[in-house]
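ESCALATION

Customer reports they have been waiting on this structure for their group meeting. Please prioritize. Original submission:
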Amino acid sequence: MNNNNGTTPTYKRVLALAGLVILVGLIIAFLCVALFGGPDSKDLFMGLAGAIVAVPIMLWLLLWGLSAVTGRHNIASLDAGSSNKQHDKFGNVIPDGKIDTVVFDIGNVLTDFAWNDFLVAKGYDKAMIERIAKATVESDDWVEYDKGNLTNDEIIARFVENDPEIGDQLQDAFANIDGIILKRDKTIPWIRSLKAAGYKVLYLSNFSKQALEGCPEAMAFLDETDGGILSYRDHVVKPYPEIYKLLEERYDLTPEKTVFIDDTPVNIDAAIKLGWNGIVYKNYEQVHDELVALGVKY
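Update from on-call: job pushed to the front of the queue and completed.
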Protein backbone atom coordinates (compact mmCIF):
# COMPACT_ATOMS: atom_id res chain seq x y z
CA MET A 1 0.00 0.00 0.00
CA ASN A 2 1.37 3.45 -0.90
CA ASN A 3 1.87 5.95 1.89
CA ASN A 4 0.95 9.37 0.50
CA ASN A 5 -0.21 11.19 3.61
CA GLY A 6 3.19 12.67 4.39
CA THR A 7 3.74 10.62 7.57
CA THR A 8 6.78 8.48 8.16
CA PRO A 9 6.27 4.93 6.81
CA THR A 10 5.65 2.27 9.48
CA TYR A 11 8.78 0.27 8.65
CA LYS A 12 10.96 3.35 9.15
CA ARG A 13 9.39 4.04 12.53
CA VAL A 14 9.93 0.40 13.56
CA LEU A 15 13.59 0.52 12.50
CA ALA A 16 14.12 3.82 14.30
CA LEU A 17 12.53 2.45 17.46
CA ALA A 18 14.61 -0.73 17.27
CA GLY A 19 17.80 1.30 16.90
CA LEU A 20 16.86 3.46 19.85
CA VAL A 21 16.06 0.41 22.01
CA ILE A 22 19.44 -1.16 21.17
CA LEU A 23 21.34 2.02 21.97
CA VAL A 24 19.46 2.61 25.24
CA GLY A 25 20.03 -1.03 26.17
CA LEU A 26 23.77 -0.66 25.62
CA ILE A 27 23.88 2.48 27.74
CA ILE A 28 21.93 0.84 30.60
CA ALA A 29 24.18 -2.23 30.47
CA PHE A 30 27.25 0.02 30.46
CA LEU A 31 26.02 1.94 33.52
CA CYS A 32 25.16 -1.28 35.37
CA VAL A 33 28.62 -2.73 34.77
CA ALA A 34 30.24 0.56 35.73
CA LEU A 35 28.29 0.74 39.01
CA PHE A 36 28.04 -2.88 40.05
CA GLY A 37 30.69 -4.79 38.11
CA GLY A 38 33.77 -6.17 39.75
CA PRO A 39 37.37 -6.44 38.60
CA ASP A 40 36.45 -9.30 36.27
CA SER A 41 34.06 -7.00 34.37
CA LYS A 42 36.77 -4.87 32.80
CA ASP A 43 36.56 -6.49 29.35
CA LEU A 44 32.78 -6.28 29.34
CA PHE A 45 32.97 -2.64 30.42
CA MET A 46 35.37 -1.76 27.59
CA GLY A 47 33.32 -3.73 25.07
CA LEU A 48 30.11 -1.90 26.01
CA ALA A 49 31.88 1.47 25.90
CA GLY A 50 33.18 0.69 22.42
CA ALA A 51 29.77 -0.48 21.25
CA ILE A 52 28.08 2.71 22.44
CA VAL A 53 30.50 4.71 20.28
CA ALA A 54 30.69 2.32 17.33
CA VAL A 55 26.99 1.53 16.81
CA PRO A 56 25.86 5.13 16.08
CA ILE A 57 28.88 5.68 13.83
CA MET A 58 28.18 2.50 11.87
CA LEU A 59 24.49 3.40 11.52
CA TRP A 60 25.42 6.89 10.33
CA LEU A 61 27.88 5.53 7.76
CA LEU A 62 25.29 3.00 6.58
CA LEU A 63 22.71 5.75 6.05
CA TRP A 64 25.27 7.92 4.28
CA GLY A 65 26.20 5.03 2.00
CA LEU A 66 22.55 4.35 1.15
CA SER A 67 22.12 8.00 0.26
CA ALA A 68 25.17 7.95 -2.02
CA VAL A 69 23.91 4.84 -3.83
CA THR A 70 20.24 5.79 -4.18
CA GLY A 71 20.63 9.55 -4.62
CA ARG A 72 17.99 10.08 -1.93
CA HIS A 73 19.03 12.18 1.02
CA ASN A 74 18.54 11.12 4.60
CA ILE A 75 19.59 12.49 7.97
CA ALA A 76 23.19 11.38 7.44
CA SER A 77 23.60 13.17 4.09
CA LEU A 78 21.66 16.39 4.58
CA ASP A 79 23.72 19.53 4.05
CA ALA A 80 23.54 21.71 7.15
CA GLY A 81 23.83 24.70 4.82
CA SER A 82 20.45 23.85 3.32
CA SER A 83 18.59 23.71 6.63
CA ASN A 84 16.64 26.83 5.68
CA LYS A 85 15.47 25.27 2.39
CA GLN A 86 12.39 23.25 1.65
CA HIS A 87 13.03 19.52 1.16
CA ASP A 88 11.05 16.77 -0.50
CA LYS A 89 10.22 13.50 1.29
CA PHE A 90 13.67 12.13 0.41
CA GLY A 91 15.49 15.15 1.84
CA ASN A 92 16.36 16.67 -1.55
CA VAL A 93 16.29 20.47 -1.65
CA ILE A 94 13.28 21.93 -3.47
CA PRO A 95 14.48 24.99 -5.42
CA ASP A 96 12.84 28.33 -4.78
CA GLY A 97 11.11 30.04 -7.70
CA LYS A 98 9.69 28.74 -10.96
CA ILE A 99 12.84 27.05 -12.35
CA ASP A 100 13.80 23.52 -11.26
CA THR A 101 16.11 22.41 -14.11
CA VAL A 102 19.14 24.06 -15.73
CA VAL A 103 20.23 22.65 -19.10
CA PHE A 104 23.65 23.53 -20.53
CA ASP A 105 25.11 23.44 -23.99
CA ILE A 106 28.75 22.30 -23.83
CA GLY A 107 30.97 23.90 -26.49
CA ASN A 108 31.81 27.54 -25.60
CA VAL A 109 29.55 27.32 -22.53
CA LEU A 110 30.96 24.64 -20.23
CA THR A 111 34.11 24.12 -22.32
CA ASP A 112 36.09 25.96 -24.99
CA PHE A 113 35.68 24.71 -28.54
CA ALA A 114 39.29 25.62 -29.33
CA TRP A 115 39.53 24.63 -33.00
CA ASN A 116 41.77 27.59 -33.88
CA ASP A 117 44.32 26.76 -31.16
CA PHE A 118 44.00 23.11 -32.16
CA LEU A 119 45.12 23.96 -35.72
CA VAL A 120 47.81 26.38 -34.57
CA ALA A 121 49.30 23.58 -32.46
CA LYS A 122 49.53 21.45 -35.60
CA GLY A 123 51.77 24.08 -37.19
CA TYR A 124 49.47 25.75 -39.70
CA ASP A 125 49.76 29.48 -40.43
CA LYS A 126 46.85 31.92 -40.35
CA ALA A 127 46.04 31.68 -44.07
CA MET A 128 45.97 27.88 -44.02
CA ILE A 129 43.89 27.83 -40.83
CA GLU A 130 41.27 30.06 -42.48
CA ARG A 131 41.17 27.74 -45.48
CA ILE A 132 40.93 24.59 -43.34
CA ALA A 133 38.18 26.19 -41.25
CA LYS A 134 36.04 26.95 -44.31
CA ALA A 135 36.29 23.31 -45.39
CA THR A 136 35.60 21.90 -41.92
CA VAL A 137 34.29 23.66 -38.80
CA GLU A 138 32.60 26.43 -40.80
CA SER A 139 31.03 24.06 -43.32
CA ASP A 140 27.65 22.36 -43.22
CA ASP A 141 29.49 19.03 -43.16
CA TRP A 142 30.78 19.63 -39.62
CA VAL A 143 27.39 18.63 -38.26
CA GLU A 144 28.09 15.09 -39.49
CA TYR A 145 30.49 14.72 -36.57
CA ASP A 146 27.64 15.55 -34.22
CA LYS A 147 25.06 13.30 -35.87
CA GLY A 148 27.20 10.22 -35.29
CA ASN A 149 26.13 8.52 -38.53
CA LEU A 150 29.49 8.53 -40.37
CA THR A 151 32.96 7.25 -39.61
CA ASN A 152 35.80 9.71 -39.12
CA ASP A 153 37.23 8.77 -42.52
CA GLU A 154 33.87 9.41 -44.20
CA ILE A 155 33.61 12.83 -42.58
CA ILE A 156 37.16 13.78 -43.60
CA ALA A 157 36.35 12.70 -47.16
CA ARG A 158 33.56 15.28 -47.20
CA PHE A 159 35.95 17.95 -45.96
CA VAL A 160 38.37 17.06 -48.77
CA GLU A 161 35.56 17.45 -51.30
CA ASN A 162 35.11 21.01 -50.03
CA ASP A 163 38.73 21.91 -50.86
CA PRO A 164 40.59 19.11 -52.69
CA GLU A 165 43.78 21.16 -53.07
CA ILE A 166 44.48 20.89 -49.33
CA GLY A 167 43.33 17.31 -48.98
CA ASP A 168 46.59 16.22 -47.33
CA GLN A 169 46.38 18.98 -44.74
CA LEU A 170 42.76 18.14 -43.99
CA GLN A 171 43.62 14.48 -43.56
CA ASP A 172 46.49 15.37 -41.25
CA ALA A 173 44.53 17.91 -39.21
CA PHE A 174 41.51 15.71 -38.52
CA ALA A 175 42.94 12.21 -38.37
CA ASN A 176 42.03 12.69 -34.72
CA ILE A 177 40.65 15.71 -32.89
CA ASP A 178 42.21 15.08 -29.50
CA GLY A 179 42.54 18.39 -27.66
CA ILE A 180 40.03 20.36 -29.70
CA ILE A 181 37.92 20.83 -26.54
CA LEU A 182 39.47 22.55 -23.50
CA LYS A 183 38.19 22.59 -19.94
CA ARG A 184 36.94 25.67 -18.10
CA ASP A 185 37.81 25.95 -14.41
CA LYS A 186 34.44 27.47 -13.49
CA THR A 187 32.42 24.58 -14.89
CA ILE A 188 32.48 21.99 -12.11
CA PRO A 189 32.04 24.52 -9.27
CA TRP A 190 29.13 26.06 -11.22
CA ILE A 191 27.40 22.70 -11.63
CA ARG A 192 28.00 21.73 -8.00
CA SER A 193 26.59 25.00 -6.68
CA LEU A 194 23.41 24.60 -8.75
CA LYS A 195 22.97 20.99 -7.62
CA ALA A 196 23.60 21.91 -3.98
CA ALA A 197 20.77 24.44 -4.28
CA GLY A 198 18.47 21.65 -5.47
CA TYR A 199 18.42 22.20 -9.23
CA LYS A 200 18.55 19.35 -11.72
CA VAL A 201 21.53 19.98 -14.02
CA LEU A 202 21.56 18.47 -17.53
CA TYR A 203 23.50 18.91 -20.76
CA LEU A 204 22.14 19.16 -24.31
CA SER A 205 24.82 19.45 -26.94
CA ASN A 206 25.68 18.79 -30.55
CA PHE A 207 28.73 16.71 -29.79
CA SER A 208 30.78 14.03 -31.47
CA LYS A 209 32.13 10.74 -30.19
CA GLN A 210 35.60 11.78 -31.39
CA ALA A 211 35.58 14.96 -29.29
CA LEU A 212 34.24 13.15 -26.22
CA GLU A 213 36.84 10.40 -26.35
CA GLY A 214 39.70 12.70 -27.35
CA CYS A 215 39.22 15.29 -24.60
CA PRO A 216 38.61 13.40 -21.33
CA GLU A 217 39.96 16.11 -19.02
CA ALA A 218 37.72 18.78 -20.51
CA MET A 219 34.69 16.46 -20.32
CA ALA A 220 35.18 15.33 -16.72
CA PHE A 221 32.30 17.57 -15.64
CA LEU A 222 29.80 15.13 -17.18
CA ASP A 223 29.99 12.98 -14.04
CA GLU A 224 28.86 15.97 -11.97
CA THR A 225 25.57 16.39 -13.84
CA ASP A 226 22.27 14.53 -13.62
CA GLY A 227 22.59 13.38 -17.24
CA GLY A 228 21.80 14.75 -20.65
CA ILE A 229 22.09 14.19 -24.39
CA LEU A 230 25.15 14.22 -26.64
CA SER A 231 23.79 14.35 -30.18
CA TYR A 232 25.94 11.59 -31.66
CA ARG A 233 24.42 9.00 -29.31
CA ASP A 234 20.84 9.65 -30.44
CA HIS A 235 21.56 10.91 -33.98
CA VAL A 236 19.56 14.10 -33.47
CA VAL A 237 20.92 17.64 -33.40
CA LYS A 238 19.94 21.14 -32.38
CA PRO A 239 18.06 23.23 -33.36
CA TYR A 240 15.59 20.55 -34.48
CA PRO A 241 12.79 20.08 -31.92
CA GLU A 242 13.26 16.30 -31.69
CA ILE A 243 16.38 16.62 -29.52
CA TYR A 244 14.66 18.98 -27.07
CA LYS A 245 11.58 16.76 -26.83
CA LEU A 246 13.78 13.71 -26.28
CA LEU A 247 15.43 15.44 -23.31
CA GLU A 248 12.00 16.39 -21.94
CA GLU A 249 10.75 12.81 -22.13
CA ARG A 250 13.92 11.18 -20.85
CA TYR A 251 14.21 13.39 -17.77
CA ASP A 252 10.54 14.23 -17.19
CA LEU A 253 11.05 17.97 -17.66
CA THR A 254 8.40 20.64 -17.32
CA PRO A 255 9.18 23.16 -20.11
CA GLU A 256 8.25 26.30 -18.17
CA LYS A 257 10.42 25.14 -15.24
CA THR A 258 13.43 24.52 -17.49
CA VAL A 259 16.06 27.05 -18.54
CA PHE A 260 18.47 26.34 -21.41
CA ILE A 261 21.88 28.03 -21.75
CA ASP A 262 23.52 27.98 -25.20
CA ASP A 263 25.88 30.30 -27.06
CA THR A 264 23.95 29.97 -30.35
CA PRO A 265 20.79 32.12 -30.57
CA VAL A 266 18.99 29.80 -33.00
CA ASN A 267 19.27 26.96 -30.48
CA ILE A 268 17.77 29.15 -27.76
CA ASP A 269 14.96 30.24 -30.12
CA ALA A 270 14.09 26.58 -30.72
CA ALA A 271 13.91 25.93 -26.97
CA ILE A 272 11.71 28.98 -26.35
CA LYS A 273 9.27 27.83 -29.05
CA LEU A 274 8.80 24.65 -27.01
CA GLY A 275 8.01 26.62 -23.87
CA TRP A 276 11.47 26.55 -22.26
CA ASN A 277 13.23 29.55 -20.80
CA GLY A 278 16.42 30.46 -22.63
CA ILE A 279 19.64 32.39 -22.08
CA VAL A 280 22.13 33.14 -24.86
CA TYR A 281 25.57 32.65 -23.31
CA LYS A 282 28.02 35.54 -23.66
CA ASN A 283 30.01 35.13 -20.46
CA TYR A 284 29.65 33.56 -17.03
CA GLU A 285 28.73 36.75 -15.18
CA GLN A 286 26.00 37.66 -17.69
CA VAL A 287 24.44 34.18 -17.45
CA HIS A 288 24.62 34.25 -13.66
CA ASP A 289 22.75 37.55 -13.58
CA GLU A 290 20.07 36.27 -15.98
CA LEU A 291 19.63 33.10 -13.94
CA VAL A 292 19.15 35.18 -10.80
CA ALA A 293 16.59 37.31 -12.67
CA LEU A 294 14.68 34.08 -13.39
CA GLY A 295 14.65 33.28 -9.68
CA VAL A 296 17.49 30.74 -9.75
CA LYS A 297 19.26 31.02 -6.39
CA TYR A 298 22.58 29.25 -5.89
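Sent to customer with the following note: The chain has a mean pLDDT of 88.
Escalation resolved.
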